[in-house]
Structure formats: C-alpha cells, structure tokens
Amino acid sequence: MASHFPNLFTDDNNVDSKGYTTNSKSIEFGPWHISYDVSCILPSMCSTKVVCERDDDQFCQFCIYCKELSIPHFPDMVFPKNILILEHNSGAKIEFNPLDALRRVSTRIEAIEVACAESWQESRPDAEKQKKSFDWTFSTDYKGTLSSNITVEETDETINFDLLKKKEQIIFYHDLTLFEDELHDHGISKLSVKIRVMPTYWYVLLRYFLRVDDVLVRSIETRMFHMLNTDYVMREFTAKEAKAEDINMPTILMKEADDVIPHLPLKEKHTDKLVVNSSNQN
Fold it and tell me: In terms of Cα–Cα distance, which of 234, 229, 192, 165 is closest to 101?
C-alpha cells in the first residue's frame, strides 16, 4: 500500500469560558481528523460557587463531575479537558475522555479488601461525607465513546501486530493521562490513552493500570487499529489480573505497567470491528 502523509498539522492554545487553558494539536489523515487537548487538573472543590448554585446549567468542571457521576470520590488527579478525538469526514466519531471513563467505575465494592482501602477514603478532602460503597481503585472497562453512526460487529479478524512492530516514521504521537490516583501511597490507579499515526495507519492504546502494592496487579486495555483506505477500525479489548504473590517477578519490578503486564494471565479478550456508516450523519 502506498504511503499517505497527512496534509495538515495544527497546534493551538485556547482559553475556554471556564478559564481552562488548553493546548490542542490535530492532524488530517485521509478522511480522519485526529486531535487531542491537554489541560490542567480538575479542582478539588467548586470554583464558581455563586454561579453553580443558580442551577441554570452553568456549572464549573468540578460541579459537572459531581452531577454526572455517582461515585462519592474522584481520583487525586483527573484531567477533564484531556481528550482524544478521531473524527471521520462522514461525521462518525471516536472519543476518549475521563468523564465517560469514570461513569464505568462500579458503585459497589467487589472490592480489594485491604487495610489501605479505609485509610484511602479517610484521606479524601470530603471524608466527612457519609461513606458510600464503590470501587475505590477506580477500575473501569471503558472502551472509548462511539458516535451513533458507528456499527460494532463481531469478527475473527485480528489487529496486525507485526505491522505495528515495524520501524516506520511516526507522523503524530501523544500520550494523554485521563486520571491517576496513588491509592494513599499504596499503589497506582491510572487511565491513559496513546495515539500513534504512521504513514499507512493509526493506532490507539487505552490502558487502565492498577497496582495495589503486595496485593494485586490489573490491566484493562483497548486497542484500536485503522488501516488507510478501509472503512472500519479494529478494536481489541483485553483484561488481565493476578495477585501479587502469584506473579513470578520481584515486587520492585511491578512498578511500571510495561514491565509487569506481559506477566499477567489473560482473564478476558474479544475483538470487534467498528464500521463507519458513511451514509449516516450525526
């Protein structure tokens, strides 16, 4: 397949109506407009109390999260404006954002019952609130947000990982953190998304990584792969998990996701096609 180089790259800094300064970068790749925004951390309290109390749909980011989410606490670091969007010229859109990801956090505790769970909750700024059961590790099976004109189909086709391993020019790349929490210094819970655009394809890795020190390691990953001149995106979902005592590697080497994830047993995997319906418009 002939190489296709994007014809437009943009880099902008913007300030929205809420005062958030956002760095935005985008690229045109065939029929796709690929863009990401990077901004600051979600405040830990309402920043415009007088405005938000009017209840006229003019809310600060903190109050939007409080109204939209049923979990009683948020991760230490949420980046509400860190968003990756891949939009097809038909209007079809794939988006990755922290709010939709946190909607998938369970409001019941399956839980990893360890001593640090209670101390974690007590360390929250709003610990005086009535305690509610929820997954304090913020585990999420979020796979991205799809527009209505994308059809999900089962498939036996797989992502071409051999192609991904080839050394080619990287045209566009970024690694966005959507949220992160250090679990009261007992580990890490982090959701991030990476975008990589090459001459003939684009590739996305959405990764949730959890490490509760000396207790558990978990990864939930969604990969998306699109080859130029095709009308669909391959999506692969995998979930891996193991107790720390069952992982055959020193604890010190479990700190980094890339080091430990290959050692985790596979718990769930499925692949599907995201078909772009060009005849439909949003």
Answer: 192
Residues in the chain: 282
- The closest alpha carbon to 171, from 39, 30, 276, belongs to 30
Which stretches in the chain have pLDDT values below 70?
Answer: 1-9, 13, 15-20, 50-51, 55-56, 108-133, 279-282
86 in a structural domain: yes
Report residue 122 CA to chain centroid gap.
27
CB atoms within 10 A of CB 36: 22
Domain count within the chain: 1
Print the domain residue range for 137: 8-276
Residue 265 maps to a domain = yes
Q: Is residue 3 part of a domain?
A: no
What are the pLDDT digits (tens) for 156-209? 999 999 999 999 899 999 999 999 999 988 899 999 999 999 999 999 999 999
Encoded tokens for 121: 């909750």
Distance CA 115, CA 10 (A): 48
Give backbone dihedrals phi and psi of 187, rounded to 5 degrees, phi first.
150, -145
Instruction: Report whether 55 contacts 73 (CB < 8 A).
Output: no
In this structure, are residues 172 and 4 in contact, taking their beta carbons and an 8 Å threshold?
A: no
- pTM for the whole structure: 0.87
Pick from 26, 127, 22, 40: nearest CA to 78: 40
Token pair recorded at residue 250: 């020193």
